What we know:
- This protein is mainly alpha-helical.
- The protein has helices at about 5-20, 25-35, 40-55, 55-65, 75-90, 100-110, 115-130.
- The chain has a single domain (about 5-130), classed as NusB-like (N-utilizing Substance Protein B Homolog, Chain A, Orthogonal Bundle).
- About 70% of the residues lie in helices and about 0% in strands.
Amino acid sequence: MSRIETREHVMMFLFQAYFRKDPVADQIEMFKEDYPEVSNDPVYFTDLVYGVINKRDELDEKIAPFLNKWKLDRIPLADRIVLEIAAYEILNMEDVPVSVSINEAVKLAKKYGTDSSSSYINGVLSSFEKSL
């Protein structure tokens, strides 16, 4: 499984996990039953999942200034998760180029977001990148 596919699975997992109260480790095991291909890149998947979950408040705080008059709680959940994944990669995964994180976030937004999600996410992440 490629990292592109892994990011998509992370996005799907985090979306589901947002509504569930089970321990994350249990949710991961259940998710792997439905999506066994996640086991092809378990380290990257687990790093992203736990990274976003454990640093969600910090990531949201860093993203918030770039939301262009929007508040985080008003952004569609899928868009928020895509932003959090990309922000986590940009800030914590040196082996992933920033341009790749942004490009992959835009792809996920096109697939899972609204008609305007991809351009919005591209703008937010581009501004975020420039601030670093």
